[in-house]
């Protein structure tokens, strides 16, 4: 079982890390165009990350559904589910691409931008919008392959896409002289190329299994219905993150800058823990599809041990090394102090985060999306008073940021740990069969 977990988790981690390289490459190249261009990219990328992030259910729901059918021995049905998920991703991506292109000025204005910064942000959004169908196809196809216990193909595609994105951006931004428009176009082309690669892989498997490649209204509707609860869950997480940023803003510039450092490090550790959650999704889905409750419990126990253990290791590294690596982010002593205090709180909470992320993966793999949606709402309700209390009473600066991370990394994560932990102790989530 350990070998299976690592075989799935390690390539998944590589694919998860490869995706943020798109933003890093864009930032590095656009940054040389000027301050207005980089600021515009920051706003535009925030919009895109939010849109795509809300659609991550395409990967999660497809992984769970495909894994169940594989476990039940229905490979044709598994691949048909993957194909239907991809059609849903394509349709949703096309609609969002049109909406994003049309609403780009309004979206940018809503973020408070104007003048040259707004113009740059709108340009990037409009040139990158055609890539949205590709981005959502990548999510759906990746979910289908994960359900088939294949995390290596998505890794190869993500790594190749990151390299292609860098080359395209260099050629279009500087060689063709398109500026920030070249960055948006390069990202769109790279994402569409990744999508085509993954679609070919899934389509070949579907044909070999006898599944059809044409869209089925019933299958698409089933995929959409399964994804709605996960969309609600993701939305609650996004609201919690936005509330945290709003609270950090009220603590002053040094606390806000320190929060950016803590959040970046927290996000990096989340990739490692999410990779274990992806392994849990696939293995739990397959064992439930095979009606093997004993193995489902075994996967739950072992992945939780891996998650908590990884959280302990990451927590020690994050906390012990914090005074050293915060200097890379800022030379300001106040920012460094705020970041170190926030990171120490985050480090203490990482073992619990490992527990939470793995349980999320287990319940997603079981198709328990409706419970996760309600649990997301409940945990958000528990977190809001804590965040508002920090905003109202915490002192500005480093101490205030430490209290904010107590609210987020301890209170919010504890609420998630409690709700998902109680659910996992019972048996209502263990619905067997395809």
Question: What would you note in describing this structure?
Answer:
- It is a multi-pass membrane protein.
- This is MATE family efflux transporter.
- With 434 residues, the chain is mainly α.
- The protein has two domains: 209 residues, no CATH class; 209 residues, no CATH class.
- The chain contains 15 helices and no strands.
- Helix 4 crosses helix 10.
- The longest helix is centred in the middle third of the chain and has 37 residues.
- The radius of gyration is 21 Å and the shape is globular.
- The model has no long low-confidence stretch (mean pLDDT 86).
Topology summary:
Layout: H1 2-18, H2 20-31, H3 35-54, H4 57-71, H5 75-110, H6 115-128, H7 132-147, H8 152-175, H9 180-209, H10 217-249, H11 253-289, H12 293-329, H13 333-365, H14 369-393, H15 398-425
Helix pairs in contact: 1-8, 1-11, 2-3, 2-8, 2-9, 3-6, 4-5, 4-7, 4-10, 4-11, 5-6, 5-7, 5-9, 5-10, 6-9, 7-9, 8-9, 10-14, 10-15, 11-12, 11-13, 12-13, 13-15, 14-15
């Amino acid at each position: 079982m350990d070998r299976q977990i690592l075989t799935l988790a390690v390539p998944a981690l590589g694919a998860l890390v490869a995706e943020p390289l798109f933003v890093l490459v864009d930032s590095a190249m656009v940054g040389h165009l000027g301050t207005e261009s980089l600021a515009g990219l920051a706003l535009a990328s925030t919009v895109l990350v939010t849109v795509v992030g809300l659609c991550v259910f395409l990967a999660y729901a497809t992984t769970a559904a495909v894994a169940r059918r594989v476990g039940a021995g229905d490979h044709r049905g598994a691949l048909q589910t993957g194909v239907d998920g991809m059609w849903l991703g394509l349709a949703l991506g096309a609609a969002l691409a049109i909406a994003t292109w049309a609403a780009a000025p309004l979206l940018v204005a809503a973020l408070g931008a104007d003048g040259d910064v707004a113009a740059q942000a709108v340009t990037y959004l409009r040139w990158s919008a055609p890539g949205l169908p590709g981005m959502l196809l990548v999510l759906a196809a990746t979910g289908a392959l994960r359900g088939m216990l294949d995390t290596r193909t998505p890794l190869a595609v993500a790594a190749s896409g990151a390299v292609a994105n860098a080359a395209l951006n260099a050629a279009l931004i500087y060689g063709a002289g398109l500026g920030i428009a070249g960055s948006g176009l390069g990202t769109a082309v790279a994402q569409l190329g990744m999508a085509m690669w993954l679609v070919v892989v899934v389509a070949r498997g579907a044909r070999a299994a006898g599944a059809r490649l044409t869209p089925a209204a019933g299958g698409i509707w089933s995929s959409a219905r399964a994804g709605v609860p996960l969309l609600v869950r993701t939305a609650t997480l996004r609201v919690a993150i936005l509330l945290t940023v709003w609270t950090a803003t009220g603590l002053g510039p040094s606390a806000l800058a320190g929060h950016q450092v803590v959040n970046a490090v927290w996000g990096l550790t989340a990739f490692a823990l999410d990779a274990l959650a992806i392994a849990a999704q696939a293995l739990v889905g397959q064992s439930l599809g095979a009606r093997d409750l004993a193995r489902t419990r075994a996967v739950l126990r072992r992945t939780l041990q891996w998650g908590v253990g990884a959280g302990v290791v990451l927590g020690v590294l994050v906390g012990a090394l914090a005074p050293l690596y915060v200097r890379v982010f800022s030379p300001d002593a106040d920012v460094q102090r705020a970041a170190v205090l926030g990171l120490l709180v985050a480090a203490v909470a990482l073992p619990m985060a490992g527990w939470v992320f793995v349980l999320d993966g287990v319940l997603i793999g079981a198709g328990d999306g409706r419970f996760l949606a309600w649990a997301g709402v409940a945990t958000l309700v528990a977190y809001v008073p804590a965040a508002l209390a920090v905003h109202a009473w915490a002192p500005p600066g480093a101490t205030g940021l430490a209290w904010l991370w107590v609210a987020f990394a301890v209170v919010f994560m504890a609420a998630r740990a409690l709700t998902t932990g109680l659910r996992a102790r019972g048996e209502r989530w263990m619905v067997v069969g395809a």
